[in-house]
């Protein structure tokens, strides 16, 4: 799945190139020599395990890390008892941080038994100064720490760990730099995520993302199109365009372009069969985008539209910049223009100051919009955000009661929504052999619903017609037709 990269052309005895990405290929060539020496010492190719916490953008970043690791000689495994372990971290909720700290304790035991082992931490959690201090104090066995802005420098940073002792830390507060066209090893040969922009300018009061991902910066549309074309030539039939708020895409380019216009250009690419994207902020979702989706033959019939709260008062405290009424009107307009679309959402319960009446407002929106699925979270206090400093934090028992009520309504309405497809024949992209029953394949419909059906493994990566026979809440059992 990775493009063939020739590292032999780089003279590693000369000074490193200044320009990117050539500089990183130079360091990959240097790293390869060290990895080869390690392989001779171990008697086998060194192993590496990359564990991803968090969103699709983190998953895409991990594919880049794996691509570089493979080209320099590491064997990728899923066992954390490896010669090199990388945690690509998330920091949206506090429990994600705690999971990383817990796993680091386990890795320390592995490292004591394997003196050649290296441990690296990257991603959003590493952009928090308090986290770095804690790791420096309590987890001194970590070899490398880097953040979200300089992930493209991974080969150079890894080389530094080979030639120096002690912990290597390289954290940037922000950047305007975008470096792509580096090795990538995709998890699936037939589908891929593509970063179209980085960062976020919205500053929702509960969210740490703008502080760890930086300000919005969009990639040049020509670069995006070239990347999609290369992926399609390599067998990809479905792509997902990724950004913290894709509806803001293109605003900061020298020649501004809207996200809807980018979608139209991507749709022209021959051989590409499906286009997905996330995430959309309701305040920026334009009539132009709805119109493009309505007439598109490739854009999937699925829209993730985070609500967060159904209370206008709480939405204002969250700095979401829309009201309950505006959100409901937007959802109604989308369903009116694209009747077969599936809408999913994110909901937070327990934001500071939220009352039972506010929770009822959220439930009212769920019943009105009728989501096909919703990711429902208990509010997580993130140090450094305005919401963390709010004095009216909601008691845990009150939050739990509200969360349970919201979750039940979400599940009930989602089952009702998903069941409306029963008896239909729809296209499904075959993604894998079913993990619970090897006689079944698992496919994904355009609307993002899963369907399990009998079939041969050779069908993986193909789009097939499937009859949706039995609805089981959030998925279907069917058969090919």
Could you give a short description of this structure?
This protein is 36% helix and 20% strand. With 481 residues, it is of the alpha/beta class.
Task: Give structural notes.
- It is a single chain.
- The two termini are 30 Å apart.
- Helix 1 (22-42) packs across helix 5 (154-163) and helix 12 (356-369) packs parallel to helix 13.
- The model has no long low-confidence stretch (mean pLDDT 94).
- The chain contains 13 helices and 19 strands.
- The protein has helices at residues 22-42, 56-71, 94-113, 129-138, 154-163, 209-213, 221-233, 259-267, 287-295, 312-318, 324-337, 356-369, 396-419, and strands at 47-52, 75-76, 84-89, 118-123, 144-146, 168-170, 191-195, 197-198, 217-218, 238-242, 274-278, 302-304, 342-349, 373-378, 425-433, 440-445, 450-454, 463-471, 475-480.
- Helix 12 links the parallel strand 13 (342-349) and strand 14.
- The strands form 5 sheets. It has a 6-stranded parallel β-sheet, with helices on both faces.
- With 481 residues, the chain is α/β, with parallel strands linked by helices.
The helix content, as a percent range, equals 25-40%
Q: Which strand-content bin applies to the residues?
A: 15-25%
Oligomer: single chain
Class based on secondary structure composition and strand pairing? alpha/beta
**In angstroms, what is the radius of gyration?**
23 Å
Instruction: Work out the helix count.
Output: 13
Query: Which segments are poorly predicted (pLDDT under 50) over 5 or more consecutive residues?
Result: none
